[in-house]
Amino acid sequence: MSAKHILLIDPLSKLNIKKDTTLQLALALMDKGVEAYCLFERDLFYTNTKLPELSVSTFTGENIKNSYYLEGFRLLDNIKYQLKEGDVLHMRLDPPFDGRYLRILWILKNLAMQGVKVINSAAGLLLHNEKMRAYSDPSAVETFVGSSADGFRDYLVGLQKKGVTEAILKPLDLYQGMGVQKISFANQSPGDMMAFFLNKAREYQGTIVVQPYQKAVETGEVRAVYFAGKFLGAIKKVPRPGEFLANIAQGASFSKCELSASQKQTCDKIATDLLEDGIYWIAYDLIGDHVSEVNITCPGLLVEVSKALEKNLALDIVDQLLVL
Fold first, then answer.
1. Residue pLDDT, tens place only, 51-102
2. What are the Cα distances from residue 297, in Å, to 68, 180, 210, 305?
3. Rounded CA gap, 5 and 7, in Å?
4. pTM, full prediction
5. What torsion, rounded to 10 degrees, do the Cα atoms 223, 19, 45, 277 define?
6. Which domains does the chain have, with CATH numbers?
7. Half-sphere CA count of 91, side-chain side, radius 13 A
8. First CA to last CA distance, the chain
């Protein structure tokens, strides 16, 4: 009996349906004749005696003609589905990686122990933070992570001795550029810098990431998509003039690009390592030769990369899913 695919997704009202990666995957599964359903957080549960019978929804939708963007996506019937060993459950809920997210991952981890294949694996997501995994790579930019005033002071002194004049501060567990700020050391006293850092730590309730500002981001940040350890494609996201956030949702442009030999070597190595922990789907962000994020919780921009490559990469992902 062939495995069924269950996509655990956010409410449709929260999604940008035209360009949503998860919905693109759902339609690709449908196009390939794979039985698939949408599951919402409110209907997910676990029992320790048997796999649950879940309330799921069938769906339909279509792409805009001659495009990789979605024209529509609609839920159809709500049915009861008895989850079976060997079924594939796609964890496609957006962060933040907070207490709610942890509770869901704990449920998914136990479902995996009962024979359900969870992609990306809950155990892998619990083990690897998207930013920390990037910072552990030997090629990573020099980075401070924490809320220690003394640690930040020493790090700041070290940057200034190296001639660094600007830095980026951001929270450890948000996404889509939320909370990212650039600060300049010019005309600011050490006390001003410390006050700014401590205010940020309070605002985000703890850990802050601090890095020297990488001016190369102004000419573009690369998004590279991998699945099952294989490179699928990449785009370069270029911020609007005068800005530094290469976020398409905030107006950045994008176009097809190739990875350099060093970029691909780094991404290949991380993908191989993470595959051992059940992390199949990765969307890297790279600035120059530095990996800035290893997006694994709900990797996105598949529609944009498909458009740039003029190829529906969701169909390639489904082909790989069918031989797992």
1. 999 999 999 999 998 889 999 999 999 999 999 999 999 999 999 899 999 9
2. 23, 19, 22, 18
3. 7
4. 0.93
5. -20
6. 5-127 (3.40.50.20), 144-213 (3.30.1490.20), 216-321 (3.30.470.20)
7. 32
8. 15
